[in-house]
Structure formats: structure tokens, C-alpha cells
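in:
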């Protein structure tokens, strides 16, 4: 592609279906408030025409796109680079033309953790904790973030941890909620580029022609998240964004040191109490046994005033279903506060807008627009 291409301040939102998605409404209002000459539009694309639609975006010199289901796992052939988080999640949610290449990223993992950090700070302010004491309170002691959901989401969150303050590790509960596994540490993330911060003596990039990612020297050889070899020769990477081939097993990291596992009869490590539970799907809770749920909520090693975070659906809207209300009541009855989907969406839209425009949008404005559009 020509390096002197004319870049248009246009961002497309591609999906199927797209009805009810607030991206265009929220982003257009943000651009107007910031006095930026950016335009956003939404297009419902038949699956068989996605290739043509995305090639059209590239040919017309648009700045980027928001990618909705069912196309989040279909971007690899069109991109020059994909962030490690997006590779781990197996989805690309935003793309842009930058530095003479098309790059893709996912933003849900960072949005989840920012929503958590934002609430922790608000909690400290509400409790009138002095600013100097906030840096020494339990928010900065070793803690865990539990994931009730896919290994792919847990991996992406593990990589996104380096974008927030605090000493956290991610653990994933299995489908029965009876066992949890602590994920291995990963390489720190540069929050501006979402690329691993390689040591000074590490290779800056891989010798490849089709897709650029930076190596992750902290991961063992053969790990699905290690990027210091050709993706085309690696079936795990080759299928990372292929929904017909990807599986949680493919994205699962090497087993950490045995000492990091929960002990016999211990659901959460005593030295890393649970700060938050991230719930990807309500089915994950509903399908478990009442005994397992009771053990998780009553016997797990929680910090004081923990949170549960509901992951918003990829289509961008939420519904007040019976299961959702029931789980909110049950969590609150056990002293667990909850961070609703719209809070996560607010942070995700802020991240997305900055990803495309470089402008840091006010959260209050995003929240107000989302509430208006979704009639929350």
C-alpha cells in the first residue's frame, strides 16, 4: 500500500447485526464535543461480503474501524500487526492505520481493569482515605482477580494487568467453580502501544513479512503466546483468530510453578485474596452446582469490599434478564459490590476513541451518551 496515502478521518463500525449498537452515536457526540472533524458510520455487512467491505475501508483511506460480531476473529488477513492481547483473546475489536500499517487490538480486557481501578479509587475517596495512605493500603498488596469465563479472556486480562497499578495475578475458575488456576506472569505492556516491553537485549520485532508482533521472552518456548517465531509456521498463532480452529486449550499458557496453584481445599491462595470476580457469562454461574456457588461466595478468600464485574456482550448492549437480577442480589447478599456492564462499556469507548483519534474523552460524557442511547 502506498506510503503517501491520504488518510480520511472516517471510522466504520462493521457487524451483523448492528441494530442497537451505540458506537456511532457515542463516538459522533464525542467528536463534536471535542471539536474534532471525525465521522463515524455503521454498516451491517453480510458475512460473505466482509472481505469486500474491509478492503473497501482500506482502499478509501479511512482511519480505522470498530469490529463487531461475527467478524472479530476474521481480521488477520487484513492486518500488518496484532497486539498480544488480541492474539490471546482471539479477537480484534478495533483497527487503525498508523505508522504505514494496519494494526489491530482488543480493548475489553483493559476496559474491565480500568473500571475496577476506577471503582477502587472511588471506594478509597468515599472512605476518606488520605492520598498518601492510598499508596500503602490493601489495593497495593498482592491480590487476585478471578475469572469465571474463558481461558482466552483470562489470558488477555493477564497481559492487560501491566496497564493498571497494583500487584495482581489472574486466576481462572473451572466450569464447576471447584478449582482455580493461577496464570503465569507475562511481559509488561506499554499502555500506548499495547506491545510487550521487551528487555534491552531482546529482539525489537520478528523477521516476518505478514504480521508483526513483539517477542515475549518471559514465556516458555512453545507457549501459544510467545511471538518470537513465524506465525505462519505455528498452528497455534495461525488459528488464533480463526473461530473454526481456536480453542481455549490453544490459548492456555504453560502451567505456572506448582506453588502458585491453590492448595488442597483452598480455592484462592491465602497470600493473594480476591479483589474482584470477572463474570463473562451468567451461564457460567447458572450451570454450576449450588454447593460450588455457595463455596465460592462464602468460603473464597475475598478482600474487604470486593467487586464482581459483568462483562458486556460483544454486540454492545445489555438486557435486564432474570438471571442477571438474581445474581446481582446474591452477590450483594454476600457483601460483593458489582460493576455493571455500562461502566465497562464507558471505559471501553474511551479507550476506543483515544485509539483512533488520540483524544482522551471524558468518562461522564460517554456514560451520559450510553445511558441515553441504551435507555439505561
Amino acid at each position: 500500500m502506498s506510503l503517501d496515502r491520504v488518510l480520511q478521518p472516517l471510522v466504520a463500525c462493521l457487524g451483523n447485526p448492528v441494530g442497537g449498537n451505540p458506537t456511532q452515536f457515542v463516538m459522533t457526540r464525542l467528536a463534536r464535543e471535542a471539536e474534532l472533524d471525525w465521522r463515524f458510520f455503521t454498516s451491517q455487512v453480510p458475512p460473505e461480503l466482509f472481505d469486500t467491505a474491509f478492503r473497501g475501508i482500506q482502499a478509501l483511506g479511512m482511519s480505522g474501524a470498530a469490529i463487531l460480531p461475527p467478524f472479530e476473529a476474521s481480521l488477520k488477513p487484513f492486518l500488518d500487526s496484532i497486539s498480544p492481547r488480541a492474539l490471546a483473546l482471539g479477537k480484534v475489536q478495533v483497527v487503525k492505520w498508523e505508522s504505514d500499517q494496519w494494526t489491530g487490538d482488543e480493548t475489553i480486557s483493559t476496559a474491565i481493569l480500568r473500571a475496577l481501578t476506577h471503582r477502587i479509587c472511588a471506594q478509597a475517596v468515599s472512605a476518606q482515605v488520605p492520598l498518601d495512605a492510598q499508596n500503602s493500603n490493601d489495593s497495593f498488596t498482592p491480590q487476585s482477580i478471578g475469572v469465571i469465563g474463558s481461558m482466552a479472556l483470562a489470558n488477555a486480562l493477564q497481559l492487560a494487568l501491566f496497564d493498571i497499578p497494583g500487584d495482581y495475578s489472574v486466576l481462572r475458575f473451572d466450569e464447576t467453580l471447584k478449582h482455580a488456576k493461577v496464570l503465569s506472569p507475562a511481559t509488561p505492556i506499554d499502555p500506548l502501544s499495547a506491545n510487550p516491553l521487551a528487555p534491552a537485549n531482546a529482539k525489537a520485532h520478528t523477521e516476518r513479512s505478514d504480521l508483526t508482533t513483539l517477542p515475549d521472552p518471559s514465556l516458555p518456548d512453545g507457549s501459544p503466546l510467545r511471538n518470537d517465531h513465524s506465525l505462519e509456521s505455528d498452528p497455534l498463532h495461525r488459528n488464533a483468530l480463526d473461530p473454526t480452529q481456536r480453542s481455549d486449550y490453544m490459548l492456555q499458557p504453560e502451567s505456572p510453578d506448582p506453588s502458585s496453584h491453590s492448595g488442597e481445599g483452598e480455592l484462592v491462595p491465602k497470600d493473594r485474596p480476591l479483589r474482584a470476580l470477572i463474570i463473562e457469562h451468567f451461564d457460567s454461574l447458572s450451570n454450576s452446582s449450588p454447593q460450588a456457588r455457595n463455596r465460592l461466595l462464602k468460603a473464597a478468600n475475598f478482600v474487604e469490599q470486593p467487586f464482581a464485574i459483568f462483562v458486556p456482550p460483544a454486540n454492545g448492549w445489555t438486557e435486564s434478564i432474570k438471571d442477571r437480577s438474581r445474581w446481582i442480589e446474591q452477590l450483594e447478599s454476600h457483601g460483593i459490590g458489582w460493576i455493571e456492564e455500562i461502566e465497562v462499556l464507558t471505559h471501553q469507548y474511551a479507550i476506543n476513541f483515544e485509539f483512533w483519534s488520540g483524544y482522551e474523552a471524558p468518562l461522564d460524557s460517554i456514560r451520559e451518551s450510553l445511558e441515553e442511547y441504551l435507555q439505561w
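note: The chain has a mean pLDDT of 78.
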